[in-house]
Amino acid sequence: MATNKTAYEETKDAIMDNKHSIGEKAPGTPFALVALSYLTVLAIVCVTLGFAIWAMR
User: Fold this and answer.
1) Rounded distance, CA 22 to CA 15, Å?
2) Other residues' Cβ atoms within 10 Å of the Cβ of residue 39
3) Residue closest to 27 by CA, chosen among 46, 47, 7, 52
4) Are 28 and 36 in contact (CB under 8 A)?
5) 1-57 pLDDT per residue, tens
6) Which UniProt keywords apply (predicted)?
């Protein structure tokens, strides 16, 4: 019987596995992690900059 893992479970298993690299275990995961981390940092910078501009007025 095949197991259906969610993307979260697959990513978690790939990160926790010390024998194989993330790219070997879940090929699309490294790109997704990098892309989402850049978007998260961009969002934090935009919110901080918006708050600073709002506070100066």
Assistant:
1) 6
2) 10
3) 7
4) no
5) 456 777 777 777 777 777 777 667 667 767 777 788 889 999 999 999 999 999 998
6) Membrane, Transmembrane, Transmembrane helix
